[in-house]
Amino acid sequence: MGDCLKSLQESKGDMEEAFVILRKRGMASAAKKASRGTNEGAVGTYIHAGGKIGVLVEINCESDFVARTEDFQELMKDIAMHIAATDPRYVRREDVTEEDMAREKDIYRSQAAATGKPAPVVEKIVEGKMSKFYEEVCLLDQPFIKEQSLTIKEMIAQKVGKLGENITVRRFARFKVGDPVWTVAQVKAEDMPTASAE
Hints:
The protein is α+β, with helices and mostly antiparallel strands. The chain has two domains: about 35-95 and about 140-190, 2-Layer Sandwich (Tetrahydropterin Synthase, Chain A), CATH 3.30.479.20; about 95-135, GTP Cyclohydrolase I, Chain A, domain 1 (Orthogonal Bundle), CATH 1.10.286. It has helices at about 1-10, 15-35, 65, 70-85, 100-115, 120-135, 150-165, and strands at about 40-45, 55-60, 145, 145-150, 170-175, 185.
């Protein structure tokens, strides 16, 4: 309540601006906690209507207490449902394989070069298309299906601000009946914080 009041005062009563201020504070709070270890958490599931698509997702936090809160459980369900709907291939940009990145850049560079544009413009086009590629295949870069103005990363940052602990998506698996290929993605082990640091 105190944060809401402060943001309303800061925005001089403008509700939209107050919401933006709260979101920025949540992101700042999340950035401070990003290096802290997340060795607790839970595995969540989502089965799409009719039982045709199923998702398992592991989301980690710093304490078992937070993992059992309603907010954490709601976040886990929302992310599992999002994965079922969008079928991302990776958790984060850093997890995209060198081969996939090189292939996509090569395709985009060839397409842009075929337009006859100069090399610096071609590289800008490739950069823009790679951002779109990450948004399509990386969970944290995707707009949340229930709130398109918010990425999954921003949604997690809001929960970090609210719950006061670092929260990370460690891995997920998505299965679809009849599909011979299933998606399994995880964060590179060396990139996960393991020790708590205040």
